[in-house]
Design brief:
Layout: E1 10-13, E2 20-28, H1 32-37, E3 40-42, E4 52-59, E5 65-74, E6 85-92, H2 94-105, E7 110-111, H3 116-123, H4 129-140, H5 144-154, H6 157-181, H7 192-211, H8 213-221, E8 223-229, H9 235-243, E9 261-267, E10 270-276, H10 286-301, E11 304-310, H11 317-330, E12 335-340, H12 348-357, E13 373-374, H13 383-394, H14 410-431, H15 436-454, H16 460-467
Parallel strand pairs: 1-7, 8-10, 8-11, 11-12, 12-13
Antiparallel strand pairs: 1-2, 2-6, 3-4, 4-5, 5-6, 9-10
The structure holds guanosine-5'-triphosphate and magnesium ion.
Magnesium ion binds next to helix 9.
Length: about 475
């Protein structure tokens, strides 16, 4: 006998809708094996052992054959959901799969909601909430690094960390509350120094986990990388070079790109969401002006800014100011200053102009600009170095690999931050000699926050929002 209480059976197509070799229909819940048997001609599935596969036919009530299938039987609690489960593999056509599902539903089984199988797995204790979320992350992963991060979480490593923190706080709470119980007798059980150290350690550990969020977010969602610069600097050419297709229009006419253009590009397992923008200049043209406004907007939202400067043109004072302005406004956002068109000569004409202008010294001004790299997209010069620099700068040389545990979800980050705030409040209370009952309130609040990560503490609203991200059949 298993201890899992089984819900009414649900069914859904678990594979993408389309033409393929096979499609899988998943059925889970109380009496799901008996109910599927009702439309399965072959071995009686009710007699089948767990984890066995059986050939047979799905038949309508009137005896008409719908498809030849394989039915895999998993008995509770040893299944994904923890409930009795049948997975029916049928031929992978759109209509035939639908017909098999409908025939199964006619046996008194309900169509599943998005993520309902995983939700049941969570409710039945097969997965913690952070692991269930990792399943969605894994499915939606758009880069190998995102797959690695999701796998770490799926293995339960985040949950383990959080459980350690919880245990430490439970120990601290116990110390505080024991003292409260004997308050009348004026006994001091909790060694204040020991308690303080315990809490300070937890706070530090939560901090180091929180530190991984910035990297985690970039790994999971991709690095929003904006190319900005003057018209004709070679922004669109660089975007096309990286993605390997003519995604953006390139012409010798300044002001070619009017709207921002997005393209996904992966390098070394990391996803970059490249954004090509309209070249920055004052313009009377209403459409171009709107484009320039959008360039600025893209800049504001970027995780990585790449400013492109055409090396074949002189650097005027205005652009120098503009670059400095962008660098300043970028603040902590990584910034790369890239010289383009390295294959072209820096025209003597432009140097001459500079001397003639007289307001500046006749030195080659560009030498005074510190370029991170000088490239030629046309000749492929330094493009590999640029790719590496982009990755390095985006992750700010953070030391992490496939086995690193990263906090990738803002829900988890928020809970960790709140937990840390509560722990710090408790430390402050301790330092101020505030009584134990207040301390205990802060510590219990911290415990509650941590409990929301693993799902020990949750509510329907949170679960609905998490599982709505899933596909039907997962
Ligand atoms: N020689 C040379 N020409 C380049 C290079 N990169 C771009 N160009 C040329 O420079 C011109 C402008 O390139 P684009 O990529 O359209 O420049 P952009 O920055 O997107 O320009 P806007 O969209 O107008 O802001 C085109 O004629 C390109 O062929 C390069 O590395 N070397
Ligand atoms: Mg362009």
């Amino acid at each position: 006998m298993n201890t899992i209480s089984q819900n009414l059976p649900i069914a859904a197509i678990a594979t993408p809708i389309g033409e393929g070799g096979i499609a899988v229909i998943r059925v889970s819940g109380r009496e799901s094996i008996r109910k599927v048997s009702g439309c399965f001609r072959g071995k009686n599935l009710e007699d089948a052992d767990t984890h066995t596969v059986h050939f047979g036919r799905i038949i309508k009530k009137d005896g008409r054959v719908v498809d030849e299938v394989l039915a895999a039987v998993f008995r509770a609690p040893k299944s994904y959901t923890g409930e009795d489960t049948v997975e029916v593999s049928c031929h992978g056509g759109v209509l035939v799969t639908q017909a098999v599902l409908e025939t199964i539903l006619e046996q008194g089984i309900r169509a599943a909601e998005p993520g309902e199988f995983t939700r049941r797995a969570f409710l039945n204790g097969k997965l913690e909430l952070s692991q269930a979320e990792a399943v969605a992350d894994l499915i939606h992963a758009k880069s190998i690094k995102a797959v690695d991060a999701a796998n770490q979480q799926l293995e339960g490593r985040l949950g383990e960390h959080v459980k350690t923190f919880r245990q430490q706080i439970i120990d601290a709470t116990a110390m505080v509350e024991l003292e409260l119980d004997f308050i009348e007798e004026d006994v001091e059980f909790a060694n204040k120094d020991q308690l303080r150290k315990l809490l300070a350690d937890v706070s530090d550990e939560i901090d180091s986990l929180l530190d991984t969020y910035e990297t985690g977010r970039l790994v999971k969602d991709g690095v929003k990388t904006v190319f900005i610069g003057r018209p004709n600097a070679g922004k669109s050419t660089l975007l096309n070079t990286l993605v390997g297709t003519d995604r953006a229009i390139v012409t010798a006419i300044a002001g070619t790109t009017r709207d921002t253009i997005d393209a996904d590009w992966s390098f070394d397992g990391l996803l970059f969401k490249l954004i090509d923008t309209a070249g920055l200049r004052e313009t009377e043209d209403v459409i171009e002006a709107e484009g320039v406004r959008r360039s600025q907007q893209a800049f504001e939202r970027a995780d990585l800014v790449v400013y492109l400067k055409d090396l074949s043109l002189p650097l005027d004072a205005e652009e120098r100011k503009e670059i400095a302005g962008f660098q300043k406004r970028a603040g902590n956002t990584p910034f790369l200053l890239i010289g383009t068109k390295l294959d072209l000569d820096r025209t003597p004409e432009s140097d001459k102009n500079r001397e003639i202008s007289g307001t500046q010294k006749p030195v080659h001004q560009e030498q005074r600009l510190h370029y991170d790299l000088q490239i030629s997209a046309r000749k492929g010069q330094n493009i590999d170095a640029l790719k590496k620099a982009m990755k390095q700068r985006a992750l700010e040389n953070k030391d992490y690999d496939a086995s690193s545990l990263l906090v990738t979800s803002s829900r988890h980050r928020d809970a960790l931050q709140k937990a840390r705030e509560n722990v710090q409040r408790a430390i402050a209370a301790l330092d101020q000699g505030i009584t134990g009952d207040f301390l205990s309130i802060d510590l219990r609040a911290a415990l509650k926050e941590l409990g929301t990560i693993t799902g020990e503490i949750t509510n329907e609203h949170v679960l609905d929002s998490i599982f709505s991200r899933f596909c039907i059949g997962k």
